[in-house]
Amino acid sequence: MKTAFRFLCLTGLLALPLAACNQTASAPANTGVAPAGFRMPEGTGCKGEIDRYRAVMSNDLAMGHVNQSVYNQVERELGPADAACAGGRDAEAVRIVHATKTRHGYR
Q1: Stretch 41-54: mean pLDDT, rounded?
Q2: Is pLDDT at 25 greater than 60 in this prediction?
Q3: 54, 107, 40, 106: which is closest to 85 by C-alpha?
Q4: In this structure, what is the dihedral angle of CA atoms 47, 74, 67, 103, given to the nearest 10 degrees?
Q5: What pTM was computed for the model?
Q6: Where would you tag: which of 6, 28, 71, 81 has the fewest CB atoms within 10 A of its CB?
Q7: Residues 57, 45 contacting (CB under 8 angstroms)
C-alpha cells in the first residue's frame, strides 16, 4: 500500500484530483431562472395564490423546465381551485393549490 501511495505521489497522479477542486467557474450573466421582464402577480387570497402558481408554471414551460403534458396536468388540477375560489371557499382553493404544488415538486 505504501509503495502505491509513493508511486502516485511521485508521478503527480495524486495531485491531479486535488487540483481540480481548486478550479473556479465564472457565473453566467443572468443567474435567475425567470426572464428579465417577469413579474409575479400580486393578488391576495386564493386568486393571488392561483395566479402566482400559474405564472410560475407558465414561466417554467417557456423556459423548458417542464413539458407541455405536466403543464396541462397542473392546469387540470387547478380547475377545482378556480371553482372553489369563485365560490368563496378560499381555504379549500388554497389547499388544492398547495397539494398541486407538492405533487409536482413545488413548495
Answers
A1: 94
A2: no
A3: 54
A4: 110
A5: 0.66
A6: 28
A7: no
Give, in degrees to the nearest 5, the angle at Cα 56 between 54 and 57.
65
Q: Find cell 392546469 and name the residue.
A: 75
Query: What is the rounded distance in angstroms from the CA atom of residue 62 to the CA atom of residue 65?
Result: 8
Closest CA to 82 of 53, 50, 54, 55: 50
Q: Can you tell me whether residue 1 is helix, strand or coil?
A: coil
Could you give the count of Cα atoms lying within 13 Å of 52 in the half-sphere of its Cβ?
Answer: 15
End-to-end CA distance of the chain: 50
Residue 26 and residue 24: Cα distance in Å, rounded? 7
Contact (Cβ atoms closer than 8 angstroms) between residue 97 and residue 81: yes
Q: Convert 66-89 into a string of H (helix), E (strand) and C (coil).
A: CCHHHHHHHHHHHHHHHHHHHCCC
